[in-house]
Each structure stands twice: as structure tokens, then as C-alpha cells.
Amino acid sequence: MTRATLRVLVCLAAAAVGAAAGAAGTQPRDPNSKQPTVYKWVDEKGVVHYGDAVPPQYADQDKTILNSQGVPVGTIPGKRTPEQAAAEAAQRKAEERAHELAQQSRQRDQNLLATYLSVEEIEALRDRRAEILDAQARVTSQYLEQLRGRQKQLEQQALHFKPYNTAANAPQLPERLSEDLVRTTADIATQQRNLEVKRQELEKLKAQFASDIARFKELKRIETDYNGNAAAAHN
């Protein structure tokens, strides 16, 4: 169907329902428009209708707004069940998330090309940052070993006291020694967690740089192919 034919059909449909507009109820119109608002809706048999007013029995259905040339310019959502509303909200959220991820991906590509000139530059930065995390992990490991040595000494001292020494005349464990044991054990647990965090950060760093290197190579290949094709077309 040509656009001219569609305009004729729209006008005829609008004229046909114009006389019934009062009975059917006039729909909101654009106050700045000199042309009547034309709506498109589908009845229960799947037949498409056009008019400047929608009959009450179709008020809960989706409606499309057409301009004077029969081109869709907007929609009026119909009534939704709670399930439909939830599904549409989930769909919108998924689309927004996909759009956000696409923007982040484009921004990442731009940053890669703007920051590095070669794969070697990316690898050099990776190695520098990895060395920092390695050094922090080594310091934590050394401190952890010191704490474990301290803990062993305290445990040896505690063997002379109750409840570790079951002799009848064994003295009670001194409060200060007990506090040192508790504190040292807690410090060991904290440093073990810190060491695990450093190891996880290092693995995450390596994975991120591996991904950046692979993407940088792909972008450079695309750029090379594009420049080659452009030069060939120019020649």
C-alpha cells in the first residue's frame, strides 16, 4: 500500500467515525495541532480500525496515534494486568541494561585506543601493577609468618598453666597471656583474609589485562582492515 493510498484511507476512516465522535467520547488532542488526532486500534477479530475517537469497548487496548499523513507518531498503552505490567517492566529494565553495557563497551574501546599505541604498552602497565600487588602479598605473607611464630611461642607458654596443664598444682593461665593469644589468633585470621584478597586482586588484574589485550588487537585489526579498504577504494 502506498503512502498516498494510506492517507486516503485514514481520511475516509476519520470522516466515517466523525459523526459518532460525540457518542463514542472524544479522545485528547494536541492543542497545538490544527489537524484532528487519528487513532489506530485492532478489534477482537484482528481488524484494524482508524478514527478520531476510540469506541469505549476498545478503551483498554493499545492505540497508535497517527499524524495527518498516516504516519505513527506515538502510542497510548492499553490496560495491563499485573503480570503484563511486571513483564514489560522487566523487559524495559533488560533493554536499559543492554544499552548501558553497550555504552560501556564503546567507552572501553575508545579508552583503549586513546591510551595505548601497542600491545607492549599494555603488557608493561600490567606487569607494573602486578608487581605492586605481588610486593604487597609478600609483605603480608612475611607478617603472617611472624604472627604464627608468635602464636606458637604463646601456646608453648600456655602449656604451663591451666587448663592446658592438668597438674593439680598448676597455676591459672595469666590474663595477659590469654589476651595475647586471642589477639594474635585474631590478627592471623585478618592477615589471612588480606592475603587472599591480594591474590584475588592479582588474578582479576591479569584477567582484565588479558581481555584488554585481546580487544586491543581486535580493534587494531579492524582499524587496519578499514584503512586498507578505504585506500583501495580511493585508488
- Structural domains: how many: 3
Tell me the Rg in angstroms: 37 Å
> What integer is the average pLDDT?
83
- The quaternary organization reads as single chain
Could you walk me through the main structural features you see in this protein, from its secondary elements to its overall organization?
The protein has 235 residues and is of the alpha+beta class. It folds into three domains: 74 residues, no CATH class; 30 residues; 114 residues. 66% of the residues lie in helices and 8% in strands. It contains five helices and four strands. A four-stranded antiparallel beta sheet has the order 2-1-3-4. Helix 4 packs antiparallel against helix 5. The longest helix has 60 residues. The N terminus is likely disordered.
Write the layout of secondary structure elements.
Blueprint: H1 3-18, H2 21-24, E1 38-42, E2 48-51, E3 63-66, E4 72-76, H3 82-115, H4 119-158, H5 175-234
Short description:
The chain is 66% helix and 8% strand. The protein is α+β, with helices and mostly antiparallel strands and 235 residues long.
List key phrases describing it.
5 helices; 4-stranded antiparallel sheet; 235 residues; 4 strands; disordered N terminus; alpha+beta
